[in-house]
């Protein structure tokens, strides 16, 4: 029989993502609905180690559902990699009598939760929050939809200039070592080429296609590159293309951190609200060390270790669609 849960902690950890605030709000309000007490932990694992946490009520999360970033702030925390750091974190949680944790973050934060829960008896529930969508076992992560929409809006604008001046544009989007932002934003903006880390890029094929366009004097071409692509990003791709296409104007635009910020999309707000609700239900049901993911529009509870071990994959069909639609 599980011991009765009384007080939980909630934090945001690792890279921030739009929709994290909506998730915090859902966790706090669901917990309070169930008469649990909730502590907000500042700056992820760092706040656990520094004992930087405070009690939250319904008002603490008023008027935040539409805000990007995270009111609890986020951080990367070196000390948490060490057993001594995790012990300090545990002692601080015990001081506050916190007996369950909700961690909103990416695969790194989940790895931290695995290490922590292997050593101490505090159940940890993850909420998949990352713009990169690089966690397997979930169809979507909080922040991905907003980031992709931001990228699409920016690329649409760049395409206007590209069309007006007959240029090749190489646009670099975020995603760390995952290509989902590039794939989705590239398809949505009609990119001719999409370069992602999950696939080896045939650069000669791209060069040949562009040389053919150069001959026909139809030099409009949009290339979307994931930051983690094997060529090392848009600047490197530009160098290779310029060497082979001396008569073309090839421009680069790195979208950068605008993809992380901004008001979350409706989809991310709803996803975060559902996931936050389910995280608390999970703790109440006595579940340990799972994260809340969405599969076929249903909330699933997936062991944290599997999110850690498996990276999402991109099927051949996606690449076929890109090729056919760009022809
Ligand atoms: P994200 O959650 O966005 O993937 P990171 O990979 O930076 O972000 O991880 C966030 C934090 O999680 C790290 O700064 C560290 O404190 C903790 N963490 C990650 N991996 C481990 C690990 N193997 N052991 C302990 N803590 C970890």
| Rg (CA only) | 22 Å
Q: What's the tally of helices?
A: 11
Q: How many structurally independent domains?
A: 2
In the CATH classification, which architecture of the largest domain applies? 3-Layer(aba) Sandwich
Hetero groups: adenosine-5'-diphosphate
Question: What series of H and E elements makes up the topology?
Answer: EHEHEHEHEHEHEHEHEHEEHH
Kindly state the percentage of residues in helix.
40-55%
Characterize the largest beta sheet: strand count, sense, and whether it forms a barrel: 7 strands, mixed
Side by side, the strands of the main sheet go 3-2-1-4-5-10-11
> Could you tell me the mean pLDDT?
94
Secondary structure class reads: alpha/beta
Strand content: 15-25%
In the CATH scheme, what's the topology name of the largest domain?
Rossmann fold
Q: For the terminal residues, how far apart are their CA atoms?
A: 61 Å
- Tertiary shape: elongated
Total count of strands: 11
| Uncertain segments | none
Map the helices and strands.
Elements: E1 7-12, H1 20-33, E2 37-41, H2 45-50, E3 53-56, H3 83-95, E4 100-105, H4 107-119, E5 124-128, H5 144-165, E6 168-173, H6 180-188, E7 193-195, H7 203-215, E8 221-226, H8 234-244, E9 250-254, H9 266-284, E10 290-295, E11 298-303, H10 304-309, H11 316-326
Parallel strand pairs: 1-2, 1-4, 4-5, 5-10, 6-8, 6-9, 7-8
Antiparallel strand pairs: 2-3, 10-11
Helix pairs in contact: 1-9, 5-6
Adenosine-5'-diphosphate is lined by residues 13-15, 45, 76-77, 80-81, 105-109, 111-112, 115, 130.
